[in-house]
Amino acid sequence: MSSTMLKGPYWVAARQHRRALRAVPTVVALALVAVVALRCWAEGPNSDQAGEPWPNNGYELLRLLMGHAGTGLFFLPLLVGAFVAGPMTARELESGTWRLALTQSTTPRAWLGSKVLVAAVVSVLGSVALTGVYRLGWARVAGTYHLHWADRGAYEASGPVLAAYCLLGVALGVLVGQLVRRTLVAVALTGMLTGLVLLVLGALRWSLLPVQSGTGPLEGNPLQLVPASALIMDTGLLTSTGERLPEYACFERTHGQGVCPPDLDVIGWYAEFHPVSHYWPTQLVESSLVLALAGVALFAAFRLVGARRA
């Protein structure tokens, strides 16, 4: 965001934090160069003409980079929230420099609005750009270890939910920064709250949509009931009455694979899963929930600053 396009408190907010704002496009550009270079290197074959494994260092380095990138982007909303809470909000309240803005015909709401607008625009543009760069590299190695579409890190980094969590970090940052008014404490508390929301919704996200089920004979393999790339939620044994038993129920009694006692009346296997088609609906539903939480936090923040006096 160019400070020359902004006026009043928005120009001041962008000017104050210009170094951090300039770091965003720099990080995006460096990430793009690294991913494109490794993606080109990784386009070589992974096996020879006889099908034997062939070492592809570019492919392995790309996998390693995408794994670390997914972890880093998972923590990006915490970094956004901590920066907004500390340097952008709490530090000015702690030092009293925000009173200077109020002497320039600026209201408390306009002062807070400048922080929210600058942080929100940069966070959304930066997270969307980083998501695009991540998907460029992830497309080559998707489905491998820790890079499945439903894995923690890969899921957050590859969709719109990352931008939603960054906006939540902005909202929590301006709220906590006002409530605490101590830079380091606000940074730590906002990071903890943002991380807590990430963990809680991450644990609940696969309950947002109903699972699909598949059944098969006892002689078969329960994994064959699940489509390729699906996220397996549960597997077990199925009786003639439709009752579901744990997959180890027969083994506990007979200590043999595929052998069930007659009294259990087991007729086959069942499997519950989320197909890959659930990826985008889950992303959109989760993003909506996160944005709703961000809206509540922003509403509270503006109500609080409206009651504040210099």
Shape: elongated
Query: What would you report as the Rg, rounded to the nearest angstrom?
Result: 25 Å
Percentage of residues in helical conformation: 55-70%
* Succession of helices and strands: HHHHHHHHHEEEHEH
The structural domain count equals 2
Strand content: 5-15%
Give the class from helix and strand content and strand pairing. Answer: alpha+beta
Largest sheet, spatial ordering of strands: 1-4-2-3
Q: Please provide the count of β strands.
A: 4
Number of separate helices: 11
What's the end-to-end separation, in Å? 29 Å
Uncertain ranges: 47-51
Major sheet: 4 strands, antiparallel
Look at the structure and give the mean pLDDT. 88
What do these coordinates show?
It contains eleven helices and four strands. It is an alpha+beta fold and 310 residues long. β2 and β3 (244-246) form a beta hairpin. α8 (161-180) packs antiparallel against α9 (183-204).
Topology diagram in text:
Blueprint: H1 8-16, H2 18-41, H3 57-74, H4 76-95, H5 98-102, H6 108-141, H7 154-157, H8 161-180, H9 183-204, E1 212-217, E2 231-239, E3 244-246, H10 249-254, E4 266-274, H11 279-306
Antiparallel strand pairs: 1-4, 2-3, 2-4
Helix pairs in contact: 1-6, 2-3, 2-6, 3-6, 4-6, 4-8, 4-9, 6-8, 6-11, 8-9, 8-11
Descriptors for this entry?
single chain, 310 residues, alpha+beta, 2 domains, 4-stranded antiparallel sheet, 4 strands, 61% helix, 9% strand, elongated
